[in-house]
C-alpha cells in the first residue's frame, strides 16, 4: 500500500501493538495512519507539532504517545488518541537542530542533534538522564545494546561512538572513516556492528574493537546507504540514495535480493510493523510505502 504524504517525510515509526504508523514531515506536521492489508490507509491525526521540520518520530509509553523532535530545539509528546500535546521540552538541546530519536526502553528515548550531542530522556519524568558530546558533526543514526547499556552513534564526522549509559561517558570512538557514516545496526548476537556510509560501503566493526573496522562490503551500492534495518542476526535491509531497498547478508557479505524501490528517490528511513510482517519506507518521492 502507498500513502501520498504530499510533502517530504523525515522519519517513520510503527505502533508497538496496533496497526498504526506515524511520520514526521518537512513542514513540522505529524501524521498518524491506521493501515490494513485489505483496505485503504486512514489518516487519524494531522498535528502541526513544530514550527520547523519534524525530523524524527517515535511511539513512546507503550504506544500511548508519539515523541517528535525538530530544529526548533524542542521535543514534543503527543497523545495518540486525541492529538493533544502531553508535554513539550523547549530548548531540549542547546544549539544543534535535533534530528534523531530512538527508543531505548519503555520509559527512555535518546535524541541526537546536528552538533554531535546525544541525550537520553526519561519519558515519564520528562527529564534528561544522560548527555554526551559524542561527535563533531551531525548525529546520523543510533543503535542501543540493552544488555550492556551502551548507545552507539554514527555521524557526519565519519566516526562511530560508544556511549556508556551507566558511567555517563563516551567509552570508545572509532578512527575517522573515509566518508560520512549514515546508519548503524548491531548484528551477530552483539558481536558485530554494521555502518552504512556516504560512498555505499558497509563498514563492519567487531564489538569491543571500535578503533577501526574489521571488514568492508564494497559491492552493495555506488550510492550512499542512508538507512539500515535489522531483519535477523545474519541479514539486514538497506535503503540507498538511488531509491533501492535490498536484503543483504552479513558474513558472508552478499546481496540476497532487491525487495522494493522508490523510483530512484533517496530512501530516508525503514521500519517494521509491530508483528514484523510489513516493511515501511519513506523517501524523497513523498510516499510512505508499506
UniProtKB/TrEMBL annotation:
Pfam family, one: WDR55
Superkingdom field: Eukaryota
SMART domains: WD40
Gene3D superfamilies: YVTN repeat-like/Quinoprotein amine dehydrogenase
InterPro entries tied to this protein: WD40/YVTN_repeat-like_dom_sf (IPR015943), WD40_repeat_CS (IPR019775), WD40_repeat_dom_sf (IPR036322), WD40_rpt (IPR001680), WDR55/POC1 (IPR050505)
Keywords assigned: Repeat, WD repeat
Per-repeat ranges for WD: 90-131
Keyword Repeat: yes
Family: Belongs to the WD repeat WDR55 family.
Protein name: Uncharacterized protein
Origin species: Fagus sylvatica (Beechnut)
Amino acid at each position: 500500500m502507498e500513502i501520498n504524504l504530499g510533502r517530504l517525510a523525515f522519519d517513520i515509526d510503527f505502533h508497538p501493538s496496533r496497526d498504526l504508523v506515524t511520520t514526521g514531515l518537512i513542514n513540522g506536521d505529524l501524521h498518524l495512519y491506521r493501515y490494513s492489508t485489505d483496505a485503504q490507509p486512514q489518516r487519524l491525526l494531522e498535528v502541526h507539532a513544530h514550527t520547523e521540520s519534524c525530523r524524527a518520530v517515535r511511539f513512546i509509553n507503550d504506544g500511548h504517545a508519539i515523541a517528535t523532535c525538530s530544529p526548533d530545539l524542542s521535543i514534543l509528546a503527543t497523545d495518540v488518541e486525541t492529538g493533544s500535546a502531553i508535554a513539550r521540552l523547549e530548548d531540549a538541546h542547546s544549539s544543534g537542530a535535533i534530528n534523531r530519536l530512538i527508543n531505548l526502553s519503555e520509559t527512555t528515548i535518546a535524541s541526537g542533534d546536528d552538533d554531535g550531542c546525544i541525550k537520553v530522556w526519561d519519558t515519564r519524568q520528562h527529564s534528561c538522564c544522560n548527555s554526551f558530546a559524542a561527535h563533531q558533526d551531525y548525529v546520523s543514526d543510533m543503535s542501543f545494546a540493552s544488555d550492556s547499556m551502551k548507545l552507539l552513534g554514527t555521524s557526519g564526522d565519519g566516526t562511530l561512538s560508544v556511549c556508556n549509559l551507566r558511567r555517563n561517558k563516551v567509552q570508545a570512538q572509532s578512527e575517522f572513516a573515509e566518508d560520512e557514516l549514515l546508519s548503524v545496526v548491531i548484528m551477530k548476537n552483539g558481536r558485530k556492528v554494521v555502518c552504512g556510509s556516504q560512498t555505499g560501503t558497509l563498514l563492519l566493526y567487531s564489538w569491543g574493537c571500535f578503533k577501526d573496522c574489521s571488514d568492508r562490503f564494497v559491492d552493495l551500492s555506488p550510492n550512499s546507504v542512508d538507512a539500515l534495518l535489522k531483519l535477523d542476526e545474519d541479514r539486514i535491509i538497506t535503503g540507498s540514495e538511488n531509491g533501492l531497498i535490498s536484503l543483504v547478508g552479513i558474513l558472508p557479505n552478499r546481496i540476497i535480493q532487491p525487495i522494493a524501490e522508490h523510483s530512484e528517490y533517496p530512501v530516508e528511513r525503514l521500519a517494521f510493523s509491530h508483528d514484523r510482517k510489513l516493511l515501511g519506507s519513506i523517501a524523497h518521492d513523498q510516499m510512505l510505502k508499506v
